[in-house]
Amino acid sequence: MSKVNANDSNTFAGLRVAAFEARMAGPLAGLIRKQGGQPVEAPALREVPLGGNPVIDDFTDRLLAGGFDVVVFETGVGVRYLAGAIESRISRDAWLAALAGVQVVARGPKPASALRELKVRIDLQVPEPNTWRETLAVLDAHLPVEGKRVVVQEYGQPSVELMDGLQQRGAIVTSLPVYRWALPEDLGPVRRAIAEICDGAIGAVLFTSAQQVVHVLQVAADDGREADLRSALASRAVVGSIGPTTSECLRAHGLPVDVEPEHPKMGPLVAAVAAGWRGVGKAAESRPSE
Fold first, then answer.
1. Fold for the domain defined by 16-45+185-280
2. 55-108 tens-digit pLDDT
């Protein structure tokens, strides 16, 4: 394996970079390569649609009956899973006609893109970094929710802060779970990546969601290497976080955040870590020998 090239100061220059992204693992690996890194793909989660979900059936019935005022879509994959589940019962035209009668909020570009694929009107789009804080702020500024019936499409787990914030503002809130997060069926790649991080063979790690943090620590603990992993992330491997929510999770679990990009997207994350890993002062020796 190639060593880091000290003369290439604005790229990974051969550094081995672990990425825990699943759905976009290939594109993320490509971005790492473009920045001169050696990607180590280690998907740390999978999205499992909630089949036969009575909550979705109830949402559909109430939507058709005019039972909601605002729908907040949290994720693009959630929009697509929801559409698929609804359209197993009724036509797309029927439920989209009902959706046209409510205010539609998209938490950032991914749900917005999925909604546009369906030709859904978007009334509000939450600005970066697209957290529950920005969601509440944009609603306060443009669509006060007091007394309104608000549905929140979950993103793998309940958004407790958002739900609490809406209820505190007087909204009548309904949670809409569409899918759940689970560990990958094949844990081999993430286990190998954890072992290599612990052994100093990986110089940087990229977390692109908070749930990846939880799962990586869970797998490390199951393998008896949690303490080793924590030590390596604290002292040897540069930790890149895609944005505030993931950074909050890392810090809540006692892990460092060495680099966070200005914009919470994969491209800016890779570019920021590639440009800044040397300045962190951790990864210079964290690479395998040739």
1. Rossmann fold (3.40.50)
2. 999 999 999 999 999 999 999 999 999 999 999 999 999 999 999 999 999 999
Assigned token pair, 184: 């990958």
Task: Using the CB atoms, write b or e for 106-115: b if 16+ within 10 Å.
Answer: bbbbbbbebb
Fold for 48-181, please state it: Rossmann fold (3.40.50)
Q: What pTM value is reported for the model?
A: 0.88
- Structural domain boundaries in the chain: 16-45+185-280, 48-181
Q: Note whether 282 and 237 are within 8 A (CB).
A: yes
Q: Which amino acid is at 69?
A: D
Collapsing DSSP to helix, strand or coil, 221 comes out as: helix
Helix 92-99, helix 54-64: angle, nearest 10: 60
23-58: pLDDT as tens digits: 999 999 999 999 999 999 999 999 999 878 899 999
CA atoms within 13 A on the CB side of 190: 27
